[in-house]
Amino acid sequence: MKKSIGILGGMGPLATADLFTKIVNMTKADCDNAHIRIYIDSNSSIPDRTKAILQNGNSPIPNMTDSLKKLELCGADCIIMPCNTAHYFLPELQKQTSIPFISMLEATALSCKEKFPGKTAAILATKGTLLSGLYSDVLEKHDVSYIIPNDDEKDALMRVIYDGIKANAEPEKYKADLFNVVNQMAKRGADYFILGCTELPLAAQLTNLDVPTIDPTSELAKAAIKYCGYDIK
Question: Of the listed 78, 83, 112, 228, which one is catalytic?
Answer without folding.
Answer: 83
